Amino acid sequence: MVEQPSDKPYTLRDAAFWKIIGALGFASLFIFSAMYATQPLLPLFTEEFGIGVSVSSLSVSMTTLGLIIGLLVISFLSDRRGRTLFIKSSVVLAVIPFFIMPFVPSFGLLILLRFLQGIALAGVPAAALAYISEEVDRRSASFATALYISTNALGGMTGRFVTGWVTEHYSWQAAFLGIGIAGAVIAVAVLLLLPSSRRFDPAAGTAKEDMQAFLFHLRNPLLLILFGLGIVLQLSFTGVWTFLPFHLGAAPFNLSLEAISYTYFAYGIGVIGSPLAGWLAGKFGLRPVRITGIVIMSSGILLTLGGTTPAVVAGLCVMCLGFFTAHSLTSASVARDAEHHKGSASSLYLVSYYIGVAAGSTLLSPLWTTGGWELLILVIAVLPVVYLIFSLVARKKIRARR
After folding, report:
1. 96 class by beta-carbon count within 10 Å (0-12 exposed, 13-18 middle, 19+ buried)
2. Residues 36-70: pLDDT tens digits?
3. Which residues form the Major facilitator superfamily (MFS) profile domain (predicted)?
4. What is the pTM of this model?
């Protein structure tokens, strides 16, 4: 029997709180591992399937497209059907393609499965934060949210590293089967650990009212600037990681896939970057820290132009610190600037964020083909700074008119 929404939320002292942390942490670790699992394999796919760089990158961008579609649909459904159903279903369904993809005869079928997997992956990011806000006491929710977001970064790092390392020693098929087995274990853990919703209150609004809320946010110029920033930040960030295996696998580096996989540990800076950004923003304000994060990110991207492996790795670490600082505070700014329907505003930011992932995976291919790493890096390092200047000028004009 489901308890009524009047039940008290969980605190740090409750065992159920730690079950939530464990279940969502494991779910997030798998979801984001699965999402970025093919990124180190792009050069391998171009050779094995005889395809171009832009086609190979579809293994990331089509997964992201599926995720975007899933987010829009599941965000609406979870407001009406509950959170735990979609969180649990997401992990279970996302495991299945890993046991099929190693045996597909063509790259087209692999892309189709990655697209469907992307839709399945959306259940966790679409419902997890809302579940935390409903079931966890407000004084403990920020801690729970920080831990959850940290596992997002940890999952992205783990998926890239594991597939690269296992592929170098065995094969990409073995890597996918390994992730599938780990995912199945995690799915069982999530099914057993995640407490049922006690405080979920189904939304009474219609789909039309939800669409009106989305359209209201899209008419808010301050929010549009933040959505655009989300796209730009992630486009540049993803662009580096997408083409890094091609760059480090060629002269003068000539690194193996295993060696390239170790560079993904730089991504782990995000585990501490988000909480650090929140602490700094509390002392100095959201905007100054976010601006600093953008400048640090662009500086780190430029550092990857160095001709040695340590220089590239240092640049990746600096870039990750700046990116997770800017991203977490941009997300917080969306929640602050939304006048109402804050949940739908956050969903739109999440969608814009993943549009940046898709764009950074595929749309930057012409830059790589035309000018290699140097042209790619110059463009994606300058782009966030240019957008930052534009956003500061635009915000000033908007506020002057109000």
Report:
1. middle
2. 999 999 999 999 999 999 999 999 999 999 999 99
3. 20-399
4. 0.91
